[in-house]
Every structure is written in structure tokens, then in C-alpha cells.
Amino acid sequence: MSTVITSVDHRSPAQRAGVRPGEKLLTINGHEIVDVLDYRFYGYDAKCRLELLEPNGSVRNVQIKKEEGLDLGLNFDTYLMDEMRCCANHCVFCFVDQMPPGMRQTLYFKDDDARLSFLQGNYITLTNLTEREAQRIIDLRISPINVSVHTTDPQLHCTMLGNKNAVRSLEYMRRFCEAGIVMNGQIVICPGWNDGDQLRRTLRDLTEMEFSSCSLVPVGITKYRKGLAKLRPVDAATAAEIIDIADEFGRENLERFGTRRFFCADELFLRAGRPLPEEDYYEGYRQLENGVGMLRSLGDDFLAALDTVDVPEEFSSFTIATGTAAAPFLTGLVQQAQARFPDLRGEVVAIDNDFFGHTIDVAGLLTGQDISAQLQKRPLGDRVLIPLHMLRHGETVFLDDYTVERLSQELDRPVQVVGLDGFDLADALFAPAESRQDNGRS
């Protein structure tokens, strides 16, 4: 733990009050400051009394008046003011354990930190949560918390998480629900483990807890599972059964509580060969970050954008590279656009995931080397379009450290990174020929 102040923002409330780098923040309004959550919550008030430990060992108090919610302006060694908490589990379905060797080290780190769940939306298991931290979540009403549920059967929960003490996370879930904490859950469906009757039990228990919302997603299985528990992918029949079970409990929840509560990922509908639900199914896309409703939202926005898009005098042809799961859906969107605008020239290419294995079919886990190798074997349009979620957040680097620039050079085409909504996709498709750029984001 380090609450030593490394710098103070220029013209911040703390600087105006005379707070100096090198001092250690002990308390705010009498509350001990342990990490970033304490700092954020207790520093929210308009009046803050800071207790500071000076480098010479003396303690002094500083009074600060500011706008409510305005940050004090203090910076520390790390974002969390503490070490990031590593996962203590050995989940049977863990994707990190299925990674090939030789990738960048950050991809092998498994965080399971409640603070990152609240601040950045990460999913956690609650297994390494201390009693103090659990009570703090309740006392400060920290919401939302994103929780990996998987099953509510205590024994199976411990087995799937590979942690004999994992049952306490179920106890925390119940306590948080009773305290009114908003929790977004995720269930990774592993056929033969937590589907069928086990899934029914889990959804029944979460319904009785009045759990806020929960997504159902298929397990991802790579070709690097040597020495790990045997798993099989979700096939069409299993996907259909999962959807039917979720619908059964979803209808019950709608009648009792006015919310479905349980939402199936787009992948399940694609694998089952079923049409995507209409927009109202997703209840404002509450589980969008888990791949629930992403394609429906993309499609609806894209079709709406066709009514307002600027049609260029000369079109620039394109090739869209995406995963095998979404390729048919995107092909349908492109065909609808071409039916309205016959001069629009382009196609969608499904990229097989040779890097992780062909059971991994989502675009977000494609690598630059697979895209390059497979696109070089075929004729391409003037531009190659790739979705933003193929890349490391805030950068232009794929999972295998291929850069967009390198991919562009190897394909001898501009590679354009397309934003995540349908309006971005429409803008990219209708880019005029004269505005081609080497690399860019729509």
C-alpha cells in the first residue's frame, strides 16, 4: 500500500490548500485512506479535512473547500494506490491458461480486483475479497460490481473456480443483493458442467436473490489446453437449450419484476442458427460489453445510417475482415446496403483463427498474422476494414503485437479501423475514393 503523494495537479484544490508531494495521505474527514476507492469516495465531499504525514514524521491537517465531486488533485505511485490483486482461482475455463507461450507478459496476468470491477468494469469472482472490503462495498454502496457467477451450486462453484474457499463468493453475492448493490453477472457455459439442470438451478437462485442482470456466454476453447480439464465447445443443440432455459426464466422475471434479468450472448443465437432478438429484448443493452446485443445494435444503427449517409460521387471498394461467427451477419448488412446503392463495392471475409484454434470464432480474438496470411491469398478492395475491438485498448496493436501499420504494408492496402457502432460502419463503407488514407479510424 502506498498513499504517499507523488505529485499534485496544478491549480487543483489540493495545491491551493498547500498539499505537497512527499506527504502521505492518512485520512479524509477522519476516514482512513487505504486505496483508490477510499480516496474517491471520501474525497467526494465539498469540504475535506486531510490528515497528512510529513516526511519528517510530523502530522498536520489541511482543510479543503471545493465543488462536490471535484477531484482533490492528488497523484500516487499507482492508479489503485496499492498493488493490483491477482486471481487466486484456477478456473477450468480460464482463457489465460489456454494462451500460447511467447506473448507479451501483460496477457498472462489474471486480475481479480474488486476496485477494478467498479472503476473499469472488470469481472471478478469475489473469492479474494476481504471482510473489510465486502463491508465497504455495502457501506459506501459501491455499484455496479461485475461478478463472474458461473454456478450457484456450492460444490460445483468451488470445483469450476478451482478454489476450495470459493463458496464465500456466493455468500457475498447474497449479502450484496440484500444490501441493494447493483451486480452485473456473467455465466460462462461449459457443456456437461454448468448447463442443463445446473443452469436452471443457478438462474432460479439468482432470481430469488433479485440479482441485477446476468449474461450467458459460451466457453472459449483454444487449441492450447494440454493438461487442463476436458471441455467441449457449445454446439448448436446446446446453444438452443441454453437460450430456451434463459427465456423460461426471463419470462418469469418479466412478470414478477419487470426485467428479463438473464440475457444470452449473440454467439449463442449464431451457434443455434436462430435470429437475433429484437431491440427490446436487451433492455437498453445492459450487458453490451459481454457481447449481448452488439450485433443487434450494430445492425439497427447501420440501417438507420443508410437513410442519412453522404453518398460519394465515386466509391472506394472495401474488404471487411472479421471472425467467422459474425461474418454472415455483416455480409447481410453489406448486401442490404448494396441493394440500395448498387455502386457500393465490397465484401466480408471470415478469418479463421489459426492462432488460437478454429473453435475461437469471434473477431476480438483474431491476430494480425492470421488476417495478413489469409487476406494475402485473395483479391482485395481498395481498403481493408477491421473492427476496433481487434486492437489493444487505445492502441493500434493486435493480440500478437502485429501493428495496423505492419498489416497495411503486408496487404499493400490502407487498413481502416472502424468504430463499434453501425454509424461508424456506414461512414467507413461510404468513404469516397478521393479520401483514402494509409491508416485511420472511422
From TrEMBL:
InterPro entries: Aldolase_TIM (IPR013785), DUF512 (IPR007549), PDZ (IPR001478), PDZ_6 (IPR041489), PDZ_sf (IPR036034), Put_radical_SAM-like_N (IPR045375), rSAM_sf (IPR058240). PROSITE patterns: PDZ. Residues 1-36 form the PDZ domain. Pfam families: DUF512, PDZ_6, Radical_SAM_2. This is Fe-S oxidoreductase. It comes from Vescimonas coprocola. The lineage of its organism: Bacteria, Bacillati, Bacillota, Clostridia, Eubacteriales.
